[in-house]
Write a structure and sequence with these properties.
Elements (H helix, E strand, L loop, with lengths): L1 H22 L5 H14 L4 E11 L2 E13 L3 E6 L6 H14 L3 E6 L9 E5 L1
Parallel strand pairs: 3-4
Antiparallel strand pairs: 1-2, 2-3, 4-5
Helix pairs in contact: 1-2
Amino acid sequence: MALLHEPITESIIAAAVEVHRHLGPGLLESAYEACFVHELISRGVEFQRQLDLPVEYKGLRLDAGYRLDVVVARAVVVEIKAVDTLSHVHEAQLLTYLRLSGLRVGLLINFNVPMLRDGVKRRVI
């Protein structure tokens, strides 16, 4: 499954690198998200932003206030962070979002790092 999504994740990471190259670390998550989606638009990449994610509980779909930052090509969840260090909680959040959304591939991107490659985590369930 991951190999099928590799071209998509490569284009996502390339867009994130471009944003990081221009902005560097130290901004708010919302600034990185705005610039990231602008970069996706300029590259002609299909995406959805701030997508509501209901929780299924005992056969009910409940609005619990969850939102996916960006979903690219209806296939890859991108969770954007601007934190000192990614923690297990951030990874657990991404895995939960994948499970709830039914999608299999996710990228956790932390822009608050000197080198973006150190802030990217890819997860496949």
